[in-house]
């Protein structure tokens, strides 16, 4: 089996994946802080976190697609890898929708505020579930590791 996309011997998807998780995952925290503190800077931080998280998620997804293609047909990890991919694509789609609903770094008002925060909340749940699947792929199935003792 191919090991997937690597840079200097390290799996690129694993290296990149923390960035979108952290950037996207904290956006709701900044929005809640913006509601609580009524300072516009928190909404701007959230907006730019989502924008940067989506940009890095695009590169991360391409690296993940290369790793996904390296999983052998009929491998036990293939179904979980598909679930991981679907969950993460859904999560990223919800964050992209939140970014569009916001329309910019200024605080959204009315229904736009509620919609943006709801999209981020559901996106966060999907990020956590997708991240768990990704971790299970590495630590249980050995995807992306140099040795695959457990497979």
Count of extended strands: 2
Number of helices: 5
Proportion of beta-strand residues: under 5%
Order of helices and strands: EEHHHHH
The separation of the N and C termini measures 12 Å
**Largest sheet entry:** 2 strands, antiparallel
Share of helix among residues? over 70%
Strand order of the largest sheet: 1-2
* Average pLDDT score: 91
Structural class, by secondary structure, is mainly alpha
CA-atom Rg in angstroms: 17 Å
**Envelope shape:** elongated
Tell me what you see in this structure.
With about 150 residues, the protein is an all-alpha fold. Helices cover about 75% and strands about 5% of the residues. The protein is built from 5 helices and 2 strands. It has helices at about 10-25, 25-35, 40-70, 80-100, 110-140; strands at about 5, 10. A two-stranded antiparallel sheet has the order 1-2. Helix 2 (about 25-35) packs antiparallel against helix 3. It is elongated, with a radius of gyration of 17 Å. The model has no long low-confidence stretch (mean pLDDT about 90).
Condensed summary:
The radius of gyration is 17 Å and the shape is elongated. It is an all-alpha fold. It has helices spanning 12-25, 27-37, 40-70, 78-102, 111-139, and strands at 6-7, 10-11.
